[in-house]
Amino acid sequence: MKALITGATSGIGKAIAQEMSRRGISLILTGRNEEALLRMQETLPVHTEIIALDLAENQAPFTLYEFCRDKHVDILVNNAGFGVFGKFSETALQEELELLQVNVRALHILTKLFLRDFKKRNFGKILNVASSAGFLTGPLFSSYYASKNYVVRLSLAIAEELRREKSRVTISILCPGPVDTGFNDRAGVQFRVKALTPEAVAKEAVFGLLTGKLLIIPGLMMRVGVAASKLVPEKLLSRILYHVQAAKQPEHK
């Protein structure tokens, strides 16, 4: 099998690439950091192709698809994404537009294009990396939470369409809680709870993907938390989450 992984140079994406390589899955990796991609290409124990792209650029998702079009990709991992922290009225609009380009637009385009190919072959697997944020409202992290809600709802809808068609194509949604990655630094926040390692998340993600699991929520506490959040009224939950997000500020005491 061959997998395409976006956002592959660090964090969850890198860990998923390593986990798949241990299973003998060939790889196509993309990210913005060409040097990091070259290092991975040299060290991973499977055939690995690379293409350096910034998925915030309009043409990049189409360029990536064309690069992969004749390479018989079996697995698509939409992992690229980032967050912007702060009050919605104060955060930088351009940064949020780039967030939407990567977290929503690029994922949407790649999912659609590869899904069409997979359906023609009646085989293929898609892993869309969302977040536990995809089930919640996130004051002070509004654009990021909204983008992950999009990923969750889009993927669930596609899954039902595939089920009704009795398709052998599967889609999985990875919804981790805090993970110890570079995400925190880019968003300018610090988690106040113990984060999972990217390796632990990747192991559960790849197993879930290969076995056709729809929702993959690593960690028992996070699974309990997601379930419990559905029992709390939205207004109260938003107030609680505001305080949770505010505590992530590095200067917060």
From TrEMBL:
Source organism: Ruminococcus callidus ATCC 27760
Pfam families assigned to the protein according to its UniProt record, in alphabetical order: adh_short
Any one Gene Ontology cellular component term annotated for this protein: membrane
PANTHER family the record matches: DEHYDROGENASE/REDUCTASE SDR FAMILY MEMBER 7B (PTHR44196), SHORT-CHAIN DEHYDROGENASE-RELATED (PTHR44196:SF2)
InterPro entries, sorted: NAD(P)-bd_dom_sf, SDR_fam
CDD domains, A to Z: SDR_c
Protein name as catalogued: Oxidoreductase, short chain dehydrogenase/reductase family protein
Keywords for this protein: Oxidoreductase
Domain of life of the source: Bacteria
